[in-house]
Amino acid sequence: MTTLSTFVTSLDEAKRAVDSGATALILDHPCLSLRHTANDDLTLETFINNICPAIQSQYPTIPLSWNADILFHDADLEILKTVLTHINTLKIPSIRIQDAGVIPLIQTISPDLSIHFASEMGNNNWVSIQAFEALGVRQQTLTNEVPISDIKVMQTKTNAALEIQVQGPILIQYSRRHLLKGAFPKLKTTPTRVESEDTDLPNRRFMFQETAHGHLMYGHFHRCLIPAIAQLKDLNLASWLVDCRGESDTYTRTALQTYSDALLDKPAPSDPPIDILKKESRRSQKLGFFLANMTDKDWRDQSPVRNIDAPVLAMIIDTIKGKCIIGECMEPIDQNTKATLTTPENKVHHLELDDIRDLNNQAITRAEIGDLIRLPWQKGCTPKSILTKT
Amino acid sequence: MTPFKPSLVAPGGSLEKAKIALTYGADSVYVGGPDFGLRKSADNLSFNQLEHLVDFANSLGKSIYVTLNGFGHNEDIAKLPEFVTKLQKASPHALIISDVGVCQIAKDYSSIAIHTSTQASVSHSHAALLWKSFGVKRVVVARECSLEECRIIKEESGLEIETFVHGAMCVSYSGKCVISNYTAGRDSNRGGCVQSCRHNYNLFDAATGEEDLGNTHIMNAKDLRAISMIPSICDNQIDALKIEGRMKSNLYVANTVALYRDAIDQAVEAQSTNQSTLNTQESILERVSNRGFCTGSLDQKAEQNSITREWNGYNKQVQYLGTVKECTEDGHYTIEVKSPLKTGDTVEILKPDGSRVHWPITAMTNALGDSIDTAHASTIVQIKGPSYAPRYSILQRGLE
């Protein structure tokens, strides 16, 4: 059964989440949560002593996990150890991490704790999924750049319990530096959230956020898998993650209810939820890379050098019109080698290299890597043309 | 006690740049192979070129590392065993890897040593220990680590530690950025980064989305320059110091490697810090194209002072003119020209031993030996210089 997970910081947020259909809660305290939106004055003591027990008491059957998804430095490890002690005491069954480096440490201190690995970026293939599974990770949250076809392969090749983010802002950059600080000398206080627009890519509003842990940048749209709900359900994943941190009450309730209804096979609501989510967040709601990831495939480098698979024999570095061309050898070249000369304008000449000379105009039968060679003039040839093996 | 001497690791964005780096004093060079690196636009090496370069490095007692530091998707993973098997034949001295899956395949299909890339953002000793359990020999730590943290990671993990000391820096934790994926359709973590972080951003109040808060290059990280910290780096016994820049010019590689080589040698052999020398080295580094400098997080956590918010273009005081391809004993240079040259120009030649000579060009000929007054970029010229200058000597000229 697929769980519907979301982040909570208070009992009220937990009630709202469960009322809206969440079936698993991620406890999100600022001390180790990268993207938290809670007030910084929420102490760990209050969270541990009051909020967590209240949520556990109210929802004894809802699975809980503790969010600890920062990248750690040695100085942060003491806080992690403190949190692990509290997690053990509270009997919270799982912890969510981004930093794989703390896996063995957690296993040493809390051997029964279930580890959920949510790397945000960089866990994109079935071999790495398998490797983390072998390390004892119980659940893995896939990066948002993994398309459905790859998820199916991962499910075939591994036994890992997989989660994907189905709704909400997507993190596209994590810096340890605080970049907003000092950027607004005219403001009395530095904002913790700012909308941004790349002047080279106008009309796309990215969100910047700063927490104690650093600077975060979110995509200009929200990931929203509602339009692909049938394909999503077919994947039969272990968990769907709805991330509503920083979003409105209406957004949160609408998002959770919609995905919950889908999991329970309830009919779609009359008010299109995507319109509500779009209005509330002022962000378009998109599938992102869920159905396909054509990154780099729809990019055409105009240079023919990039698009030729044959071994490059020489790069042309000088041409003297009507007289000769000069090349630098990238591979050894023997006399009479059959070669193809391709110009930057993609004009192609087929040659047999029967006349190779050094720069002193002496005929040679072989040139080595790095040698400069002189070849007979070829019409249309300019520097940056390439000579490849035919 | 013998002083600790870190090795110098330099970028080899092409076969020529790799040889320049080794010739100017790098102990190791990292290069991209035909695929799976993070610099798709560099002139990455073919397998034959890689074999050639490894032979060249071996002849000098130096090392070649191959970057395999993209985060692979399933389609990449499928091609990887054959690729790694071919790499094994070229016998590089290490592979630089970020992805746990790629690491697994590299171990299964080769016996080449593995270094964990900075892309893996190893920022504490337990992360290093995890990679040690995967069988790696060295960790290139996250650029966010201080020297003190590097020392702790080394002590706790027992691994070799490498840290960046010079060059461009990601503003984010390396590997924790996919801006290009969403803005340009290029995968940041598979070699397609378009450096959107360096762009100018209009900023608005988040609550309304309307109030204009101005515009700034808010994520435009300054370049790293830690040459003045070399003595401290040696004291902390950091095993290897890395220079960034596979996409940069021959001049950048030669100049940077020569200066860091000298700084390391002086710190270790002279066992004293000459502040005047360090200041001179810093100023020479400043002459070549840069975005302003800082020391990253090596001494204290990088914050706003590591950002160039007001961007007016690269700082540079010299122009790269060309590279000596051949030179006769009596000082006739064959030069690949990269910026226009004319007779009467006074140029500076940087030689692999770090020495610099100024002299005016009095005559030039083209590749056919015909006399010319002006040489355009992307041509070969022959010049009579003041003395012998080995292959890979670099010509530069001061800018007004």
- Strand arrangement across the biggest beta sheet of chain A: 1-2-3-4-5-6-7-11
- What is the CATH third-level topology name of the largest domain in chain B? TIM Barrel
Greatest interface by residues involved: A-B, 96 and 95 residues
Oligomeric state of this protein: heterodimer
CATH structural class of the largest domain in chain B: Alpha Beta
Order of adjacent strands in the largest pleated sheet of chain B:
1-2-3-4-5-6-7-11
CATH homologous superfamily assignment of the largest domain in chain A: Copper homeostasis (CutC) domain
Strand content of chain A: 25-35%
Fraction of residues in helix of chain A: 10-25%
How many angstroms does the end-to-end distance of chain B come to?
A: 48 Å
Major sheet attributes of chain B = 8 strands, parallel, barrel
The averaged pLDDT of chain B comes out at: 93
CATH architecture of the largest domain in chain B: Alpha-Beta Barrel
* Beta-strand percentage range of chain B: 25-35%
| Overall body shape of chain A | elongated
Mean pLDDT of chain A: 94
CATH architecture assignment of the largest domain in chain A? Alpha-Beta Barrel
Sheet of most strands of chain A: 8 strands, parallel, barrel
What can you see in these coordinates?
The complex is a heterodimer of chains A (390) and B (400). By secondary structure, chain A is of the alpha/beta class. Chain A folds into two domains: 3-174 and 222-286, Alpha-Beta Barrel (TIM Barrel); 304-389, Beta Barrel (Elongation Factor Tu (Ef-tu), domain 3). Chain A contains nine helices and 22 strands. Chain A has helices at residues 11-19, 44-58, 77-90, 103-109, 126-134, 148-157, 229-235, 249-263, 273-281; strands at 3-8, 24-27, 64-68, 94-97, 114-118, 139-141, 161-175, 193-198, 206-211, 214-224, 239-242, 284-286, 312-320, 324-329, 333-334, 337-342, 348-353, 356-357, 363-364, 366-367, 372-376, 386-389. In chain A, the strands form four sheets. Chain A has an eight-stranded parallel barrel with strand order 1-2-3-4-5-6-7-11. In chain A, strands 17-16-22-13-14-21 form a six-stranded antiparallel β-sheet, with no helix packed on it. Chain A starts with a strand and ends with a strand. The mean pLDDT of chain A is 94. Chain B is of the alpha/beta class and 400 residues long. Chain B has two domains: 7-172 and 222-302, TIM Barrel, CATH 3.20.20; 318-398, Elongation Factor Tu (Ef-tu), domain 3 (Beta Barrel). Helix content of chain B is 29%, strand content 25%. Chain B has ten helices and 22 strands. Chain B has helices at residues 15-23, 47-60, 74-90, 100-109, 125-133, 147-157, 179-183, 230-235, 250-270, 275-287; strands spanning 7-12, 28-32, 63-68, 94-97, 114-116, 138-140, 160-167, 201-205, 212-216, 223-225, 240-243, 293-294, 318-327, 332-337, 341-342, 346-350, 356-360, 364-366, 371-372, 374-375, 379-384, 394-398. In chain B, helix 1 (15-23) runs parallel beside helix 9 and helix 9 (250-270) runs antiparallel to helix 10 (275-287). Chain B starts with 6 loop residues before the first strand and ends with a strand. The mean pLDDT of chain B is 93. Chains A and B meet through helix 4, helix 5, helix 6, strand 7 and strand 8 of A and helix 1, helix 2, helix 3, helix 4 and helix 5 of B. Strand 8 of chain A pairs antiparallel with strand 8 of chain B.
